[in-house]
Amino acid sequence: MRIAELMTKNVVTVREWDELGLSSDLMRFRRFRHIPVVDAHQRVVGMLSRMDLVEQASRPGNPRLIPVYDVMHRPPITIAGEARVEEAAELMRKHKVHSVPVTDAEGVLQGIVTDSDVLSAVAGTAMPVRDLSSVPVARVMTPDPITIDTDATLGEAAGALLEGGFRHLPVIDADQKLVGMLSERDLRSAFGTDFLDWTSVEQSRLDDVVTNAMVPDPVIVRARSRLMDVVDVFTDERIGALPVLDEDDRLVGILSYVDVLVWLRDHVRAEGAETAPAQPSP
């Protein structure tokens, strides 16, 4: 399947000299994780993410007045509409991004493709992956994930997410049992503010415990579950990451979109190597 068949064509963008406050508002109200940055000719010149805003918020000054150009990632990672889905999967994994702008030969924005689009294509058998149903989650997950205790504060959780560069934290009790999941979005809701204002949150909110903001009894997956079943959960429930438990209910890993994309990239490469015609001897 080609990227042009998957991409979203009507893309919300910002200009490179727009203020960060506009980008923050768009991300908050439209629930975006990334926004392409374009010039006056609709050429993609950068990409802005939620984490870019969080990092900027910890610096001196009023971040809402800073131009997007000073914070955006450049040069942007882009892909052509004629590219195949597996190429997008490899690009996302290589550069650790969750969405990629689709451009023409002149760099003009044509659309955007996300990790969710890629996984939906897999779930819909749009790709020639023959043994997706035989792959156990344990083979694909990230083992021994970073966790946070039930008595930790929201301020500590925000720091852990920012320092680690991830978006989800499993919450465990004194017996090392999973009791919830805390996400970047949960923190935003708890703080009652957008990313650019979180450092001005009242101390009482920062000192609140994670159990008051986490999602209790989260959707979980077993280490022996099939990857195909988990892909369905990702695409149907729109969940970004799943805690992985063993048969004794111990947390043994976490499975995210990125983990699935890693496996997908490696699998497609392996299939290509197996089916490639042998080169004649010189």
Automatic annotation (TrEMBL):
Keywords: CBS domain. SMART domains: CBS. The keyword Cytoplasm does not apply. It holds the Pfam family CBS. InterPro entries: CBS_dom (IPR000644), CBS_dom_sf (IPR046342), Diverse_CBS-Domain (IPR051257). Residues 7-64, 72-132, 141-200, 214-271 form the CBS domain. It comes from the Bacteria. This is Inosine-5'-monophosphate dehydrogenase. It comes from Vulgatibacter incomptus. The lineage of its organism: Bacteria, Pseudomonadati, Myxococcota, Myxococcia, Myxococcales.
